[in-house]
Design goal:
Distance between the termini of chain B: 39 Å
Structural class of chain B: mainly alpha
Radius of gyration of chain B: 23 Å
Largest interface: A-B, 43 and 50 residues
Structural class of chain A: mainly alpha
Oligomer: heterodimer
Radius of gyration of chain A: 25 Å
Shape of chain B: globular
Order of helices and strands of chain A: HHHHHH
Strand content of chain B: under 5%
Shape of chain A: elongated
Helix content of chain B: over 70%
Number of strands of chain A: 0
Number of helices of chain A: 6
Distance between the termini of chain A: 80 Å
Helix content of chain A: over 70%
Largest sheet of chain A: none
């Protein structure tokens, strides 16, 4: 069996729009999600398949595991693998972001300690009666 | 002596520009939250991550020599589903970004559906290998995310 060709983002957007009716949620929520999808078609084109699915679901009331499960069952094995790859990439991005944040916090703490040390020294000298 | 220390502290606060005081408070608060957050991650989570990475490495090795049979691959997906479900439940009480919770949900449901599809014989050997590679990436990312120094 040959591997299926991965979907392009516009194809995924089309499919998501088609699938909106089968998702749970009120009609007005679905209409709002459909309108939103169309309005943001261009900016959405740069997002991963998984992020797109998550975004659409967050626009429809009552995102549940059952809904996501139903949505994923409709995918082929190849598409499911693609979604899992996208999700792993998203997790990697979250982890990388956290590493960057941690490094930034550490660098800021170090810098603040350095600045604080200078001020403490000035204060000690002042209190001790030396000119600063 | 106590008065002298108080004087030093007051002088220090007077000397520090408001922006530095504000930033210090913000940074210390963020750092404190992160410290609490990291401290709440139990070592058993690291054990689960280690076990899954080791298991998936073995599966990856087996796949490089040929496809896994349907039952064996289904079993791996079920184990993955159990492990991600565990992590999702444990991390629900921790301070994590919304994206993280969403990614956990996708991992749990994705592996559950993968087990069903595997049982139905829908996976080709290439797709099995791709799925294992994706899962290994996901576990490595989670390991990076929960590293103590982060």
């Amino acid at each position: 069996m040959s591997a299926e060709k991965p979907l392009t983002t516009p194809e995924i957007l089309d499919r998501l729009e088609d699938q909106l009716d089968s998702l749970e949620g009120s009609l007005s929520d679905k209409d709002a999600a459909r309108e939103w999808l169309r309005e943001f078609r261009l900016p959405l084109a740069s997002l991963s398949a998984n992020a797109l699915i998550g975004l659409v679901q967050s626009r429809v009331a009552g995102t549940t595991d059952a809904m996501l499960t139903a949505s994923m069952r409709k995918l082929s094995a190849s598409e499911l693998v693609q979604v899992m790859h996208s999700n792993a990439a998203a997790l990697q991005q979250i982890a990388d972001e956290r590493v960057r944040e941690a490094a930034l916090i550490q660098a800021t703490k170090n810098k603040l300690s350095e600045i604080a040390a200078k001020y403490v020294m000035s204060a000690i000298l002042k209190v001790a009666g030396f000119a600063v | 002596m106590r008065n002298r220390i108080a004087n030093i502290l007051v002088t220090l606060l007077l000397f520090l520009p408001p922006a530095v005081v504000g930033s210090s408070v913000a940074v210390i608060s963020v750092a404190a939250c992160r410290t609490v957050h990291v401290a709440t991650v139990p070592s058993e989570v690291q054990t689960v991550i280690d076990l899954r990475l080791a298991s998936l490495a073995q599966v990856g090795q087996a796949l490089s020599q040929g496809a896994l049979d349907q039952a064996a691959f289904t079993q791996v997906m079920r184990e993955e589903n159990a492990a991600w479900s565990y992590l999702r439940t444990r991390s629900s009480g921790w301070t994590t970004p919304a994206d993280f919770a969403s990614a956990m949900q996708t991992q749990v449901i994705g592996t559950q559906v993968a087990a069903e599809k595997s049982e139905a014989g829908e996976f080709t050997p290439e797709q099995q290998a791709e799925m294992i590679a994706a899962l290994r990436t996901a576990w490595s990312a989670v390991e990076t995310y929960f590293k103590k120094e982060n």
